[in-house]
Amino acid sequence: MYSLSCDDPTLLVHNHNTAKASAQTSPSNSSFTDCRFSAMATISPPPSATVYVRNLEEHIKVDQLKEALTELFSEYGEIVDIVAKTNLKAKGQAFVVFDTVESAQKAIDEVQGFELFEKPMQLAFARTRSDATVKRTGDEEEYESHKRKRLAEKDKKKSAEAAEEAKKLKIAAAAAGSAADMTSRPIKATRGAGLRSSNAATSAVVPDEYLPPNKILFVQNVPDEYDIDALTSIFGRFEGFREVRLVPGRRGIAFVEYEAEAGAISAKENTAGVALGETGQAIKVTYQRQ
What we know:
With 290 residues, this protein is α+β, with helices and mostly antiparallel strands. It contains 8 helices and 12 strands.
């Protein structure tokens, strides 16, 4: 089969051209046929300028992967951006953003099933427009709106996943506790029956970082010298800002309220981890637990 050497991205175009010729002349090239049949058999997102690439080799460094993808896909049009990340859930995937839908379509048609790093790529149009595409084709307001919506969806997804994980952990802990009770407790009622377990697993809750978006932010690690005015100068720059509230008797925390989720989302994304005060300690910004 046709593959790209991990050590030599310059072999990519030569191998790809050879693969195309072989695909056109050899009916036995099953990887192209099977992959294209699979793509046609499923319902695809509407055409866009962004190509979603999956089934990539997960052990290749991001820089090397981007270099290889650029070498391959630049043959089909101007590449605006390539997005590939290192986190576990994003491994083996990438997004290639072209300047036109036509270039993206041509790339999907001709590269579908091509082996990169000895794995056949699976290509489709991305389900949503990329930030780079919106920034090029729309105005600043449309871009900011698109970005806020994407970040909100991302936060909601993370929250749902964390809640589901906490639920599974709670169920597993409860089941383990029940099994232990059956084997270790006497049949008669024991003292303290009915009290809620203090076991951390059974009382698992969604971590602050994965709470769903809402219009109130919870800020931690606030330096002692930062009062309401100082915090307002930071958080008041974002759309729909209402107020900053400090908690009497509690140092280092504050609540920041906005008129709508959009403002809170934007503020959180732009202020989380910012270093404040003489010590330069990073503030922690999450959504308020409801």
